[in-house]
Amino acid sequence: MTKTSHALRWFAVLAAVFAFAGPEARAQAPTDEVIRTADINVRGLKRSDFPRMLKLADNVYVYSGLQVRTDIEMEFTTNNLVVVTSDGVLVADAQINDADTRQLLSEIGKVTKQPVKYVVVGSDHNDHTGGNGAFAPGTTFISHPTSKRVLEQRNAATGPNGAKIPVPSEVVADKKVLNLGGTEIQLLFLGRAHTGGDLSVYLPRENILFMSEAYFNRLFPSLYGGYPSEWIAAIKKAEAMNAAIYVPGHGFIDSPRVLREELTSFRLSLERVVSEGYRMKKAGVPLQRATRSAILGPFGYWTRAAQNLPEALGRVYAEADGELK
Ligand SMILES: [Zn+2]
Q: How many whole angstroms from 26 Cα to the centroid of ligand 1?
């Protein structure tokens, strides 16, 4: 018997086993075969398919809200981690405004009667914090010191009558371990990435790592305020943790295998932006022309590549000039 027919016979056996597996196994299988994109239209989904609440493990959920923003043309999700315990709920990141965040709260209300006790600011950008005022008074907000400063400055800029975002009362510069109702929750700063105050949330028992905006699933890197080379280092730290599930701040919550692969793809996209930026800087290409000269390969087709590239290269040029302090 040749090697090929051996392989074919094994394939037939496995296919037969798979066909008779339970409905759960069949439902899981296609998720590895999804179109790799962050754009809901490319997936054939509609606005009415959102928001979504997906269960990752017992008492652990991801809420995916859709931001319908006319300024950014494409429609993709913003994801929040929800950890339910017998001593309250921890939420990592929220949605862009109060109405969308109230929807998040109503979905949480469908899975538990426990109140939200903690909100972790993984990204201080407005699309993840703009709705923080919707949480009940008494909710504790936690962020990196950098993000706390950013939120204070944003509040100051809105003037005396503008709506204020709750300012975090606790900060995490490096690592903080919470024990909430017997669930260990680690808040980790893996390095400066998308905002400079990027916090990840790690659940050791479930081996789930929520990375907020340090990880976009198939969205071209947005480096508005980001730290190109340090971001790559932060992702490498996350990869070395070998989490079972890596949760992105934007993009689809795909199968664990796809999410793991796409975290690496995302790092590779950042590495491409950095290497192209340094290459052109060294060649003396002015920044204004660099966007037309960058060789992006497959990353050039990612969601929002054209929109995010100029800023991304600008940040790489700034890094090369030592301007990112
Ligand atoms: Zn964002």
A: 33
How far, in Å, is the centroid of ligand 1 from the Cα of 28? Answer: 28
User: In this structure, what are the phi and psi dihedrals at residue 183, rounded to the nearest 5 degrees?
Assistant: -105, 125
Domains and CATH numbers, the chain: 13-320 (3.60.15.10)
| Element housing 184 (H / E) | strand 183-188
Q: How far is the CA of 11 from the centre of ligand 1 (A)?
A: 43
CA distances from 33 to 21, 57, 156, 285 (A): 18, 22, 47, 40
- Please report which confidence band the pLDDT of residue 161 belongs to, taking 50, 70 and 90 as the band edges: confident
What separation in Å is there between the alpha carbon of 240 and the centre of ligand 1?
24
User: What average pLDDT does range 63-72 have in this prediction?
Assistant: 81
Residues 261-282: pLDDT tens digits?
Answer: 999 999 999 999 999 999 999 9
Type of residue at 194: H
Task: Kindly report the pTM of this predicted structure.
Answer: 0.89
